[in-house]
TrEMBL record:
Residues 145-374 form the Sigma-54 factor interaction domain. Pfam families: AAA_lid_14, HTH_8, Response_reg, Sigma54_activat. The keyword ATP-binding applies. This is Two-component system, NtrC family, C4-dicarboxylate transport response regulator DctD. GO terms for molecular function: ATP binding; sequence-specific DNA binding. SUPFAM superfamilies: CheY-like, Homeodomain-like, P-loop containing nucleoside triphosphate hydrolases. GO terms for biological process: phosphorelay signal transduction system; regulation of DNA-templated transcription. The modification 4-aspartylphosphate is found at D55. It comes from Modicisalibacter xianhensis. Residues 5-120 form the Response regulatory domain. Keywords: ATP-binding, DNA-binding, Nucleotide-binding, Phosphoprotein, Transcription, Transcription regulation, Two-component regulatory system. The keyword Repressor does not apply.
Length: 444
């Protein structure tokens, strides 16, 4: 039988039974519903189907109303309408509304089967295109959040799952770990990516000015308010508001932010006019907000309003297998920005990179890579210790293997793209892939 079922909607039990039997004899899976309301309720549970066939004239919601609701919730689902003789104007209207096809009573069963199979093929193609788009998004995400360590792969998966939602998110990570990068990925890979992404560093704003920054103000609202100004919440409506260092926000402002998010509306300072909001908030912190709440330094109710999901960015010292890849990436960026030829690190530097604690995380690593590219003195990194992970040659080999693996994954096994990125002769790449047991097919 077909993988996706045919859904049949008709209030006439005789029609439902006869069409169901005929379609099943044609090796098609069928689910029958006696009303449009029943079919819509099943769709709302997340159930999928390949094509929906509905009579037009039914009590309650008719076929056209069903079509409109399906189009609003799942525009890729083909809907076929069965119309009575003489209902051509209605059929034309249905096609304008987005119906896949219509068939006029009485009809030959073979004609219905042919059209149903074409609709099923279209639905299958729609799903395949969705999967392809998701794979492309994941590939783009991997280019934005580099690394193949378990922690960073898990983070990419979480972002991929959350980006298409409007859920508020708390991003927790140490200084320099890339919290704004994560926030921008949540925005850029979501459905509101064309809307504004507005950032506010709560730690960089004086406590007595943060409410004006968030809510905006009217001219004359306070001393120094020489003109009206929209706030960050209003500016970000429709998109994403990124609140960095949320732990620095005064408690008085937290109360007003919580109310704004609960009510979905604000008023500028000095005005009674209500402004509706529709936005996602991504808040970043380097501390445990619940610990702060327990100490009375952060509102617990605001935390739960913000942290529908909480993402943790692993510090660089916990993803050492990514350090070499990230270092080379930052070196290439610096070489391009400063118009310098790229430099290859020696084994001693590679070993030091892998053993350094990186308290400044990605920001510190980028600084070291830029200095290295410019030929400047590299800050003193950790010296190799007796408990270092393997000999120098083993660490170099681990670095090479991670670099090749990441490049192959990023380019989905495209050997020419890997050659171009790493600037390697084909023979050298083949030898190293053989040395490290890397097969192109595993990255397709």
């Amino acid at each position: 039988m077909s993988e996706l079922p045919v859904w049949l909607v008709d209030d006439d039990p005789g029609v439902r039974e006869s069409l169901t039997q005929w379609l099943e004899l044609s090796d098609l899976a069928v689910r029958a519903f006696d009303s449009a309301e029943a079919a819509l309720a099943e769709l709302a549970t997340g159930a999928d189907c390949g094509v929906l066939i509905s009579d037009v004239k039914m009590p309650g919601l008719d076929g056209l109303a069903l079509l409109r609701q399906v189009q609003a919730s799942d525009a890729g689902l083909p809907v076929m309408l069965i119309t009575g003789h003489g209902d051509v104007p209605m059929a034309v209207e249905a096609m304008r509304e987005g119906a896949w096809d219509f068939i006029e009573k009485p009809f030959e069963p073979e004609r219905l089967e042919e059209r149903v199979r074409r609709a099923l093929e279209r639905r299958q193609l729609h799903h395949e295109n969705d999967r392809l788009r998701q794979a492309l998004r994941q590939g783009d995400l991997a280019a934005r959040l580099l690394g193949e360590s378990p922690g960073i792969r898990r983070l990419r998966d979480q972002i991929g799952n959350l980006a298409s939602t409007r859920a508020n998110v708390v991003v927790r990570g140490e200084t320099g770990s890339g919290k704004e990068v994560v926030a921008r990925c949540l925005h850029d890979f979501g459905t509101a990516c064309q809307a504004p992404f507005v950032a506010l560093n709560c730690g960089a704003i004086a406590p007595d000015l943060i409410e004006s920054e968030l809510f905006g103000h009217e001219k004359g609202a306070f001393t120094g308010a020489l003109e009206s100004r929209i706030g960050k919440l209003e500016h970000a409506s429709g998109g994403t508001l990124f609140l960095d260092e949320i732990e620095s926000m005064p408690l008085s402002a937290q109360v007003k932010l919580l109310r704004a998010l609960q009510e979905g509306e604000i008023s500028r300072l000095g005005s009674n006019a209500v402004i509706r909001l529709d936005l996602r908030v991504v808040a970043a912190t380097k501390v445990d907000l619940l610990d702060m709440a327990a100490q009375g330094e952060f509102r617990e109710d605001l935390y739960y309003r913000l942290a529908i999901a909480e993402l943790a960015i692993p510090p660089l010292r916990e993803r050492r297998e990514d350090i070499g890849l990230l270092f080379m990436h930052f070196c290439r960026q610096a070489a391009e920005v400063h118009q310098r030829p790229p430099r290859d690190p020696d084994g001693e530097l590679i070993a030091a990179l892998g053993q350094h604690a990186w308290p400044g995380n990605l920001r510190e690593l980028r600084n070291v890579a830029t200095r290295f590219t410019l030929g400047l003195d590299v800050p003193q990194l950790a010296e190799p210790t007796s408990d270092s992970e393997g000999s120098l040659s083993e660490q170099v080999a681990a670095f090479e293997s991670a670099l090749l693996r990441a490049a192959l994954a990023r380019h989905r096994g495209n050997i020419q793209a890997v050659l171009d990125e790493l600037e390697l002769p084909r023979r050298t790449l083949n030898q190293k892939m053989q040395k490290y047991g890397l097969r192109r097919e595993a990255f397709l």
